[in-house]
Amino acid sequence: MGNIGVLIAVCVIVLVLFAVLVAVLSRYRKCPSDKILVIYGKVGTDENGQPRSAKCIHGGAAFIVPVIQSYQYLDLTPISMNVDLRNALSKQNIRINVPSRFTVGISTEPGVMQNAAERLLGLKMIEIQELAKDIIFGQLRLIIATMDIEEINADRDKFLVAVSKNVEIELKKIGLRLINVNVTDITDESGYLDALGKEAAAKAVNDAKKSVAEQNRDGEIGQANAQQEQRVQVSAANAAAIEGENKAKVAVAQSEAIRREREAEALRQATAAEAVQSAKAKQEAYAAQQEAEQTRAELEKATQKADVIVKAEIAKEQAEIAAEAEAEVIRRKARGEADAIFSKMEAEAKGQQEILMRQAEGMRKIVEAAGGDANAAVKLLIAEKIEELVSIQVEAIKNIKIDKITVWDSGKGTDGKTSTADFISGMMKSVPPLNELFQQAGMELPDLLGKEVQPEIQEIPEVKD
User: Looking at CB atoms within 10 Å, which of 115, 132, 218, 235 has the fewest?
Assistant: First the structure.
């Protein structure tokens, strides 16, 4: 039994060691040559003692500590993209098109790899391509704005060096490097480059024509010299063969005269031909120069016209924006005033509603106090106000000022009343009697305050025939 226990313990230890070995091997990662292994988490500190955000490894392997560390790969596959820059403004304020193709990739330099780990980790290839394209667009526009069109078109190497230098600096900030740049063609909408090409072509044609004329002139002169030498030798041989000094001199003189005449003729022909060729070359040069000047004038006219139109459009947009802003201020002010009026009216309406609700509540309680009889409630309200009503009646004639009343009374009257009594009675009747006021309100005076006496109606006896 003891041996079996020892054997079991050994097996358990072997299994534990095997499991640990498998776990260690599973966390040991090798970095392929076309990738960068980025380890992040707790990866130590830098030379300044600050915690490092990531550790980058290119070519090699590393152990990934479980729990406190993790890893990802950055792909080093080159990214090729078309950058079709259009309407870029050059130093001469002429807009040009510069289609080009750039090839970039993630850099393996130590510091630049760290930038790539911090800014590109987790991004897809298309996202990295768009980010690089935005940077390239900005740098291309900046470089073109500092160079003339002639310089960009003629000295491509200088332009490419400037592009590579500026773009490389900006790409390193996000962890990329520039592999290759190729500018396919440079064009402009104003036709300035075409005009430059025509001017260069005309100049080359004129130079070629001038060279041909010079070669023709040299050939004619050489031919004349060769003929002259030949004739001199022939004349000398003839003179030696002729008997007698006189015959020789005559022959020499005749030969000399003929030579001079032919030399003069040859010189005249060569001079005339040279003058004709020079005149033609100048005429063609003048024509080419005139065409170039016309093209330059049209270009200048188009540029000035574009400047005027652009300024006018900018002024128009500024005026529209200012008008829109002023209108918006007026609208907001009117909206604020309307909101203030609405709030005031709403508050007044709420106040009136509250007053009416309180009055309605008071009326409801009065009706309840009157036993639910609305007429009785109204009579109670009028009875409460009867003193004020009587006061108003008295006030109606209180302030009447009568300085003097003259009455011609004969002493006779109707129903035992004199004229003076009738006048005073009529004045008092101009004020509504208290009983009539109660009747108008649908009420009757209590008996203790008096009761209206109804006149008796006497029946008229029927008269019989």
Answer: 218
Q: Which residues pair with 188 in a beta bridge?
A: 96
Which two structure tokens, joined as six digits, stand for 56? 């980058």
Residue boundaries of the structural domains of the chain: 27-75, 77-189, 194-322
Cα torsion 107, 109, 113, 119: sign: negative
What average pLDDT does the chain have? Answer: 77
Task: List for the chain the helix, strand, coil content (%; round to 5).
Answer: 65, 15, 20
Q: How far apart are CA 214 and CA 402, in angstroms?
A: 143
Q: Which of 131, 40, 35 is nearest to 74 (CA)?
A: 35
Q: Would residue 400 be called left, alpha or beta, if left means φ above 0 and alpha means ψ between -120 and 50 degrees?
A: beta
Instruction: State the DSSP code for 343.
Output: H
Q: 87-97 burial string, b = 16+ CB within 10 Å, else e?
A: ebebeeebebe
Shortest CA distance to 30 belongs to which of 65, 49, 69, 58? 58
Sign of CA dihedral 49, 53, 58, 64: positive
Q: Give the sign of the dihedral formed by CA 109, CA 110, CA 115, CA 121.
A: positive
Q: Which long-range contacts (CB under 8 A, 24 or more apart) does 117-122 make?
A: 117/36, 117/38, 117/40, 117/53, 117/54, 117/56, 117/74, 117/175, 118/53, 118/54, 118/175, 119/174, 119/175, 120/74, 120/174, 120/175, 120/176, 121/38, 121/40, 121/54, 121/72, 121/74, 122/72
Angle between the 156-172 and 125-144 helix axes, to the nearest 10 degrees? 130
The pLDDT of residue 7: 80
Query: Region 209-235: what's the mean pLDDT?
Result: 74
As given in the structure block, the two tokens for residue 178 are: 């520039």
Q: Rg of the Cα trace of the chain? A: 62
Q: Identify the pLDDT of residue 84.
A: 87
CB 176 within 8 A of CB 106: yes
Q: Is 283 exposed, middle or buried (0-12, 13-18, 19+ CB in 10 A)?
A: exposed
Confidence of residue 214 (pLDDT cuts 50, 70, 90): confident
CA distances 411 to 188, 357, 406, Å, are 129, 63, 14
User: Using 50, 70 and 90 to split pLDDT, how confident is the model at 248?
Assistant: confident
Distances from the Cα of 397 to the Cαs of 147, 153, 400, in angstroms?
106, 113, 5
CATH architecture of the domain 77-189 equals: 2-Layer Sandwich (3.30)
Of 160-174, 216-230, 306-320, minimum mean pLDDT range: 216-230
Give 41's strand partners.
69
Residue 457 has pLDDT above 50, yes or no: no
